[in-house]
Amino acid sequence: MRRVFALGLAALLAGCAPADDRPEIVVQRFFGECGAVYGASTDVANADTECGILTTLINRFEAENPDIRVKVNVVAWPGYPQLAAQMAAGDPPDLVTMHQSVISDYSSRGLIEPVEGLLAQAKIDPAGFTPAARAGVEKQGKLYGMPWDTIGRLFHINTELMAEAGLMRGGKPVLPNSPEELLAQARQFKAKTGKPYLIQAQVSAPDFMVAFLYTYLLAQGSPIYPDDRHIKLDTPEARAIVTLMRQLNTEGLTTRDQDFPAATAAFTQGKGGIFPVGTWMLGPYDAEAAREGSPIKGHYAVAPFPRLWGTAAPFVDGHAWVVPAATRSPQERAAMARFLAFLSRYNYDWSRTGQLPAFAAVLDRSEFKALPHREDIAALSRTGKQLPGYVERQSAVQGLIGEELEAAITGTKPVETALKDAERRVNRLYAQMM
Amino acid sequence: MSETAPSSQRLSPLVTVLLLIGAGIMLMPMLWTLLLSFKSNAALMADSGSAFMPPWTLENYAAIFQGSLTTRWLINSLIVSTGSTIGVLVLSSLAGYGFARLDFPFRRTLFVIVLLGLAVPEQAVILPRHQLFAMLGLHNSYPGLILPSLTGAFGVFFMTQYFRAIPPELDEAALLDGASRLTLFWKVLLPLTWPAQATLGVFTFLGSWNDYWWPLISATTSDYFTLTVGLASAQMNYAQTSGLGFLMAQAVFASIPILVVYIAFQKQIVRAMAGTAVR
């Protein structure tokens, strides 16, 4: 009885507590949880890693804006099953991190809102976005998010091995300008060092191979997606690219049978010359190159994918902040605008992660230029190419293409058959889409 | 029972060695996981083989406990798993008793419908269930996480079979002594089903503890994450490369309660497995 009374009293007291009438915004993000280190941090300049910097940014926003209540949902990467569930339940968050290549899946169904109004309210001029970042959020002529960065693929290079192979000039790696040069340099590298020229993740890493294919298809001006329901992969351009990838594999000029973690470790152990992987590894590898005793200590460089065909048009993606469609009060919208304005002011800090900034002004800042290797890769912000805004279902599509590419590269299928199969399977997926 | 096993049950040295090799192979991934969990992320990124060499560290485990919501997720998992287990035991026992012992209209038809439930995978009903729970406002709540597990057909089928195996003479004797149906169920039959209850309880608890898919889409705010979803959300991108030690520590941490349950109810689990094999 006493317990019942105590519970009743507690409920009564809770009811008497002053109501919190501050507008609440629900921010949903991936990038992990790092409350152990950054739970109370507001020192953005000293925060590190994607998780650390974003956690600190949100802490700081809350500290500077006590009149806004921020609820943070940290979701398991990439968080789209949860977002879909929230949308289906009619209870979506207010601001969500989303890959730019995924935006069209939601924008085409009216599940996220165009954000021009919110950006204007936040006094963010979309003209200030880098070309690659803007292309990532612009779908059917509307902006469906505030771009946050650009993710590109880079050649991460072991300069010690490149020097041993005679592929350094003026302190810079010598990179190929054609498929023939690539093969010649790879053979030279292997002959001189006894190690493979490339380190690749060929197992369970479809995006890895797809990025290579997309980059060089875009470079050749090949229309990968002629419309929103078709892909075109059975082309001479695609055959040339995949044949090159297969030849590298056949001749042992690349590591084989490695998944992404194995390939990542192989590079740090100096087991190959070049690891073509994303901007996100810039920070970790740079730290490794500064560590005493590391096989790559002082021997690390990066460069955008070399121009092997046509023009420089590296395939890029990026992260953006999007707004799920929902009814919101003017106060909530004002709070969201303030949050976006706050984030936009700290885009430089985010670029310390290794991803490229989404705001062109950051590229010109001296602090950004002073960051390691950034001047070598900043061009990606301008030359990087996104897929057309109408292209959907990239997550599933890249999985299908990746399977076929793996079969072609490892010799399980002829290149032509694999590309035909990839095209057929993707087009069937699109045909089944509502 | 004699103290030494009959010679026919003694294992030959060859079989013993083969079993030891088999056990070693099965233990290897767990030992590998454990070793990785005691290494720093940086050391593993450089070389995952370094797990076999010192220095080892507890920093990955410390990071789990320092995580702002880990304790809450652990409590959530305990509440959901315990709630599901109790609910399944109560409902399955009652339903099993009803199907095995009571005569009522459409009993056979209803039992067939229950059996059909065994053939329907969760994925097939997840969309309508999600919409139903959304309409009822049950997402992001403990009932929302517990209720779906109570509708499982396996428990009902399992308990029905168990009740059927109990001799009906017991019922007759108890009823002759003036026991009501409830007394018969509660004081006579239910105590006899303890081995089945233990088995069903262990499996339900383990299934609920390991469940990922439903909590992932029903609990969308961090406060209601279960441990499986919470730990997954705590992983940084490419955790398998730059956060391998932390990832493995999470795996070990999440499996500790499961190990405890296995050890505590080892006999029931083995008996249940053996029973399944015989059938």
What would you say this structure looks like, in words?
The N and C termini of chain A lie far apart (59 Å). Chain A folds into 2 domains: 20-148 and 318-383, Periplasmic binding protein-like II (D-Maltodextrin-Binding Protein, domain 2), CATH 3.40.190.10; 152-316 and 393-433, Periplasmic binding protein-like II (D-Maltodextrin-Binding Protein, domain 2). The longest helix of chain A has 18 residues, at 415-432. In chain A, strand 4 and strand 5 (142-143) form a beta hairpin. Chain A has 21 helices and 14 strands. In chain A, 46% of the residues lie in helices and 13% in strands. By secondary structure, chain A is an alpha+beta fold. Chain A is globular, with a radius of gyration of 24 Å. Chain A has helices at 2-16, 35-38, 50-64, 80-88, 103-107, 116-121, 131-137, 159-164, 179-193, 206-219, 236-250, 260-268, 282-289, 330-345, 347-351, 360-363, 366-370, 374-377, 380-383, 394-409, 415-432; strands at 24-29, 69-74, 95-99, 138-139, 142-143, 146-147, 149-158, 168-169, 172-173, 274-278, 300-304, 316-317, 319-322, 356-357. With 279 residues, chain B is an all-alpha fold. Chain B has a single domain (63-277), classed as MetI-like (MetI-like fold). In chain B, 75% of the residues lie in helices and 0% in strands. Chain B has 16 helices and no strands. Chain B has helices at residues 13-37, 41-46, 59-66, 70-101, 107-118, 122-135, 142-150, 153-165, 169-176, 181-192, 194-210, 213-218, 227-234, 239-242, 244-264, 266-278. In chain B, helix 4 runs antiparallel to helix 13. The longest helix of chain B is centred in the N-terminal third of the chain and has 32 residues, at 70-101. Chain B starts with 12 loop residues before the first helix and ends with a helix. Chain A binds chain B through residues 26, 30-37, 39, 49-51, 71-77, 81-82, 84-86, 88-91, 260-261, 264-265, 268-269, 280, 284, 287-288, 291, 294, and chain B through 42, 45-48, 62-63, 66-69, 127, 130-131, 133-134, 139, 216-218, 220-222, 229, 232-244.
